[in-house]
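From: lab user (bench 3)
To: helpdesk
Subject: output format question, protein + guanosine-5'-triphosphate

Hello, I'm new to running complex predictions and I'm not sure whether the block I got back is the full result or only part of it. Here's what I submitted:
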Amino acid sequence: MKKQRNIPKKNYKQSGRLAQKQGGRSGARTKSSSANATAAKPLRQKPSPKPKKPMKAAHTDTPHTQNIQWFPGHMTKTKRQIERDLHMVDAVAEILDARIPLSSRNPDIAALTAGKPRVILLNKSDMADKQATKKWIAALSGEKARVIPVDCKSGRGVEKFVPALKELLSEKIDAYHKKGMLNPTMRVMIVGIPNVGKSTFINRISKKNKAVASDRPGVTRGNQWFTVAKGFEMLDTPGVLWPKFDDQTVGERLAFTGAIKDNIMDIELLAIRLLDLLKELKTPAFIERYSLTDDDLSQPSHELLSIIAKHRGMLISGGEADTERAAAAILDEFRAAKLGYITLEFPAD
Ligand SMILES: Nc1nc2c(ncn2[C@@H]2O[C@H](COP(=O)(O)OP(=O)(O)OP(=O)(O)O)[C@@H](O)[C@H]2O)c(=O)[nH]1
Ligand SMILES: [Mg+2]
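Helpdesk reply: Thanks, we reran it on our side. This is the complete output you should expect:
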């Protein structure tokens, strides 16, 4: 797929000024940008979509949006495989990203697996806001669903999975016992978006590194069975997204957290949108890591990107800021929680 770019790179400054003119919230202008303000050409740019759900920080001062969609052919195939294999399983383990439990829930897969008892794993909880995770546990728990926060990287919380599953499937297991089958095998299908940690979870729970896990989305290809504990088998599946994100905020959040292949997006535009959020949240980790002053934080995000590049010594020939390198660094560091433990969405009260 081709890289999508709505605004040519050289227009970043221009569009930033335009955002202020059109009522963007960032008040401060740099000397150079206000001096050139009259040169700003109108951009044919759609206004940023408003988030539907309440969130801590709204996207604010730039119209630097891009249309993010990623639904390669192997995802259609996986969807069909999930549908085909569903009759074989007793339960579904749906893995969500604790930083974006809403946006990381694939509505197609949720609908497809709706009839099955489910355990929802809020993974990467080590990188999420703890209070927000508590709220999500309460919001997602239900009669046929158990919700467990986990950190598959360290293994924290993973031990709660099998007991939760046993409880969820107790009637079924009892029925087998009554029929004289003392050790029935329960089968569980693991589903989730790309890069959410499905394979890492299987490795953790089976205490073996059998499933290939990596920090790139789209690593697992094809369904694969694993025996993970006595009496439990699990089916690892490739990550699936859905054909169209109606709300671009969802696409952006998936991109921020690493569920979408970076090489199909404009990384600088994405980092600028992330900076819109980070500027509002003002986490100490973000401010300290990039040595940001109040004046820096009051700049439009495309300028803040240049400032961060310079603070980091990321320069290209002529001493100009290497904004592409800085954008990649910001995204990497956000994804590794080096800019704070940040949850991007909250359940409605
Ligand atoms: N910090 C943190 N990282 C995690 C956690 N779980 C998984 N990861 C990391 O997330 C990345 C993706 O993990 P995978 O297990 O390959 O994800 P997947 O869902 O199988 O991905 P696909 O097969 O591409 O759909 C890896 O770099 C893991 O180390 C977690 O709980 N915390
Ligand atoms: Mg995988």
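A quick orientation on your result: Residues 1-60 have pLDDT under 50 and may be disordered. Let us know if anything else is unclear.
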